[in-house]
Design brief:
With 101 residues, the protein is mostly helical. The protein has six helices and no strands. The chain is elongated, with a radius of gyration of 17 Å.
Length: 101
């Protein structure tokens, strides 16, 4: 079951409606691999905190409560899905036995 931003955000809020696409796919936390240099360069922390402040200023009406919505904004268009092969490479897992199974 795939989720979209519509599942997490209040699109009647003007800032959300202006900045986000309700049909954009939403990723969920699970196993994530981060490039910390890119994280710092993109200023993810400050983006995350600025959206938290915006939501506080809007009396917590911009999204359903939780940690995923501000992360979806902070990481918007900054992630890529790893295939099972990519995951194996990252963690040093031998792929041939998995492909043969």
């Amino acid at each position: 079951m795939s989720k979209t931003f519509r599942n997490y955000f209040n699109f009647s809020h003007p800032l959300i409606a202006q900045y986000l696409n309700p049909d954009e796919c939403a990723w969920a936390y699970g196993m994530n691999v981060f490039d910390l240099r890119a994280w710092r360069k993109a200023n993810i922390r400050d983006t995350y905190h600025s959206w938290l402040k915006e939501n506080l200023n809007a009396n917590l009406t911009m999204w359903k409560l939780g940690t995923l919505p501000p992360a979806l904004i902070a990481f918007k268009a900054m992630f890529t899905q790893l295939t099972h092969i990519g995951i194996c490479l990252v963690w040093g897992i031998r792929i041939r036995p998995i492909l043969k199974a």
